[in-house]
Amino acid sequence: LTALPDAAFHVKKPVLYIAAKRDFVCQPVRSLPHFDRYAPHRELVELDTGHWVQLENPEGVNAALEGWLQRLQ
């Protein structure tokens, strides 16, 4: 196998990252350095939920998605 160049991992499209403040599986503090490196123009929304953000706070997720999509236009 050939190694992919570092540039292949950089996201050049808009990114919305919805982070769960009480997620002990995918802790936002561990993800953010990777987003800063590979998707520096991402938009971050933190919700006060556990791991299953879309189940624990569907209204918050929908509001974040709707706002983000509107800002893209």
What does the model show?
The chain has 73 residues and is an alpha+beta fold. Helices cover 41% and strands 14% of the residues. The chain has helices at residues 28-38, 53-56, 58-72, and strands spanning 16-20, 43-47. Strands 1-2 form a two-stranded parallel sheet. Strand 1 (16-20), helix 1 (28-38) and strand 2 form a beta-alpha-beta unit. The longest helix has 15 residues, at 58-72. The mean pLDDT is 92.
Concise structural overview:
The protein contains three helices and two strands. By secondary structure, the protein is an alpha+beta fold.
List the helices and strands and how they pair.
Layout: E1 16-20, H1 28-38, E2 43-47, H2 53-56, H3 58-72
Parallel strand pairs: 1-2
For the sheet with most strands, the description reads:
2 strands, parallel
**Contiguous runs where pLDDT drops below 50 for at least 5 residues:** none
Gap from first CA to last CA: 40 Å
Kindly name the structural category. Answer: alpha+beta
Report the sheet-strand fraction. Answer: 5-15%
How would you write the strand order of the largest sheet?
Answer: 1-2
What form results from the Cα inertia axes?
globular
Number of strands: 2
- Which whole number gives the mean pLDDT? 92
Oligomer class? single chain
Succession of helices and strands: EHEHH
Q: What radius of gyration results from the CA coordinates? A: 14 Å
Number of helices: 3
Helix content: 40-55%
